[in-house]
# Entry
Amino acid sequence: MIVKNLWRRKTRTLLTLLGIAVGVAAIVALSAFGEGIASGMENMFSATIADLTVGQKDAMMLIFSSVDESVGDELRQIEGVKQVAGTVVGIVQMPEAPYFIVMGEDPRGFAMAHYRLIAGGPITGRKQILLGKVAAKNFKKEVGETFHVNGLSYRIAGIYETGLGLEDGGAVMGLEDAQRSFGKRDKVTYFVLKLKDARRMNAVKEEIEARWPDLSAARSGDATRQDEFLGIYRSFGLFVGVFAALVGGLGMMNTTLMSVLERTREIGVLRALGWRRRRVVGMILGEALVLALAGGGLGVALGLGLIALTKLSPAVESLLQGVVTPSVLMQGMGIALVLGVIGGLYPAWRAAQLAPIEAMRYEGGAGGGSGRSTQLLARLRLTGGALRNLSRRPARTLVTLAGIGLGVGFIVALIAMTDGMTATFDQLASQGQMDLVAEQAKASDLSLSEIDDRAATRLRAQPEVKSVSRILFGFPSIPGVPFMFIFGLDPQEPYLQHYRIREGRTVTRSGEMLLGRFAADNLEKGVGDTLRISGTTFKIVGIYENGSTYEDGGGMMLLKDAQRVFGKPRKASLLGIQLKDSSRGAEVARTLEAQFPELMVSQASGFTQRLQDFATMYAVLNALIVVTVIVGGIVMTNAMLMSVFERTQEIGVLRALGWRRGRIVGMVLAESLALSLLSGLAGIAIGVGLNRLFMLVPDFGAFLTPIYSQAMFVKVLVLAVGLGSIGGLYPAWRAAGLRPIEALKYE
# Structure
């Protein structure tokens, strides 16, 4: 009976299934991508043939680690250590792949066995490279051809396969070549160790950490600070997908509710025949659960299809390798079932409350009898106002408003937070009297940018340049603060001048540091206290408050100290350039970029527009907007289609009274647009509320400060009106196609 009831309204059932399916597909695909990135990073940094991985202790992620290469010789002397291999990790931005990972390995080291050759041979000399299977396919390269990394040419010696998406989408070169290419002379990212006896692993680990307090030795499977950070990737897909599924779930509630309304008399008959309330509730909940199961199954299939489609894009495939685990599938189906229960509860309760006699007299919905003509004619005066028509079904209208408003609100929250983050970084770049900002060319991530000090010296000699400030930043792992910037600055350079010291004094010598007000409060530190970073103890000599969360949530030390702590000697992350004539910023930026091909030079006020980090962030945001439009459009179409179904006879009367098809279309579209506009306004309110909740999250909330603009609100309302147009087209066309005589006979 449940399936029969659903089949009676095939179009409505199909739309509801699609609404749920898109939400579940978002959960499956995004969770799989998040799991792929997280597991790929974990496995990439811990070769299965190694017993221990040794890296910088306070690095937020192992990729940010930097260790002196000379430590490897000392590690080899430790009793129980059989082999030691150093690895350099670099990420390159390429047109075909914005995040292209290059591993630097000792060609004679045991770690090379991790890269299983499927074509060609091993690296035997300089300027040779191995390409992963996916990279070779995406770049259309074969053994013996030339491959370029950071402007240098390498001969492809072989093609390998490891089974890890990030590695198979990248490349491997000799350790010395990688150190030269990525400016890591005498440095490695981490070491991998093979032991003579794995039973002595704990003893070796303890000895390493005792001899080098700034290093950490991790066994495969050990929980690390990196695991906490990668957990964000794993949870992001679920977090975003839940919002999409909720929108679809509210659409399902709408469908189930309208099913109850149009079957009111039928339910009255069943109650009169002896059906208890419990049985009625079971029937309605059963319909909701069948819809949820079918929508969940379809969503899983769509999600797997989306994962398969990513293989068609080289840029996406090299980074996003979907890993579908049983937990990912269970999450998608579990949320669909929960939404089925939630979406059916209110309609089931409403159906169970119907008194048999009153229900059998019910004249609403699509059904009715020959005595409705007078009531229909009396209603005609209401058709002149879209809002008044919507108010005739307040429950349906409110559920639709909530569904679409939730999706729009989520987009409002994300756009505001993204714009806030962008504005914050642009503000950071504009402070300290900077007109231009230089970053390492082709650095795929701002945190991985490394510029040699000599570039700053050469820039100072340019006739248009007044001053150059070197800025180095890192992300140490400090207990009590989940995310912390440490800036390394030279006190003799202008950028430091924008720091507003509220307590104590500025830094004057090595071993001293300033702490931002927000970080000082979280760490419960004050002037005179000490803070240990990467094995080095610093004395806090001042507290500053600049008004930027990323600065006030971090600290500042001398540039030379930061270079030592983060393992980047004679390096800077960014160069802040002050010009003699600031009005010539755009012109000078182009000139300097031509003279310094290793740099990307941008105007300070908008340098984030050229950063791959922010380009990726906005690409993800646009993808989420597309998901919201699809789900919201389905929900809107479903709501308006139900409105047409239940008013079939009314539309027949209007057509009989001379209304043309164009006027019918205009009426339905007006209602759809009015509903979408109200949903947009509700979504703005929901988005602002969500941002307020996000800002209350301990530790992270302060980094999620939103920025609202008039342009954003206009875009959101245009998006909502677009949903109304999309969602109202088919119902309006269907209403206009009704023939008066058939519509008046509709039961």
